[in-house]
Amino acid sequence: MHKKKLTTIAALLLATLALAFTGCAKNDTITIGSKDFGENIVIGEMLAQLVEAHTDLKVNRKLNLGGTFVNFNAIKNDQIDVYP
Fold this sequence. Notes:
By secondary structure, the protein is α+β, with helices and mostly antiparallel strands. It has a single domain (2-76), classed as Periplasmic binding protein-like II (D-Maltodextrin-Binding Protein, domain 2, 3-Layer(aba) Sandwich). It has three helices and two strands, in the order αβαβα. β1, α2 and β2 form a beta-alpha-beta unit. α1 packs across α2.
């Protein structure tokens, strides 16, 4: 059961990345943010490690940014590309 959950989470993270990469045509770096609570920080780090392991992209981590409003504004202002 635990392995199935991890597989599902990994699939969702990769789907999120696929959506994020549609706007990153020639950029070789992706910036990943996260909210300011434990689970989201861990998922942000997992996402970063998946990108590093399965793509040629460099990852800039901006984890523990704050709440939804802070992360949303960071995306709008091109400070981060994606957050979980």
